[in-house]
Specification:
alpha/beta, six-stranded mixed beta sheet, about 40% helix, Universal_stress_UspA
């Protein structure tokens, strides 16, 4: 890999598979000096104080310290998840990775692909919910869409079904 630091996006909806994806990335992908951007996509109909400001562009990049604060979760409608915070703390402490978060509003498929461009990601990690075939046809799998359309390498981490 050489000494170049990478920017790795991790799609986070706080489901068990997205936490698995985060843990996998922390263990296998992140090296010292890398930047982790936790990407959360909220539904368009959600109503948070910050949404009107950032609906088009997504939120500013939020540092880990702020992400921890309860105020942040209220403004962005994100659950303050101790497990996620713990994984991020550990990877920033043990590997010296810089961690920030960004919130988008809208269709996760489109917004994750847009995040790749916006944030100039070197790679993106997504969890696969392991939907059954019929649901996948109806909902269109986010991971399939992103793998097909994103302009950077995408790793899909599968949950244990």
């Amino acid at each position: 890999m050489g000494g170049k630091s990478h920017t790795v996006g991790i799609a986070m909806d706080f489901s068990p598979t997205s936490k698995l994806a985060l843990r996998w990335a922390a263990d296998n992908l992140i090296n010292g000096g890398d930047r982790i951007i936790l990407i959360n996509v909220q539904p368009l109909k959600s109503d948070h104080t910050r949404k009107e400001l950032f609906e088009d562009t997504g939120s500013p990049l939020v540092p880990l310290e702020e992400f921890r604060e309860i105020n942040f979760s209220k403004q962005y409608g994100i659950s303050n998840d101790p497990e996620v915070i713990d994984i991020l703390d550990t990877v920033s402490r043990t590997k010296g990775a810089k961690v920030v978060a960004k919130v988008y509003w809208g269709d996760p498929r489109e917004k994750l692909c847009r995040a790749v461009e916006d944030l100039k990601l070197d790679s993106l990690v997504v969890g696969s919910r392991g939907l059954g075939a019929i649901k996948r046809v109806l909902l269109g799998s986010v991971s399939n869409y992103v793998v097909t359309n994103a302009t950077c390498p995408v790793t899909v981490v599968k949950g244990k079904n």
